[in-house]
Amino acid sequence: MTQPLISLHDEPEVRRITQHLPHALILVAEPGLDSAGVVDSIISSTPSQVLRVSPEETKKSISVEQVRALVMNVRTTASMRRVLHITPADAMTEEAQNALLKLLEEPAEAVHLSQPAL
Question: Which of 34, 40, 54, 81 could form a disulfide with 110 if both were Cys (CB 3.0 to 4.6 A apart)?
Answer without folding.
Answer: 81
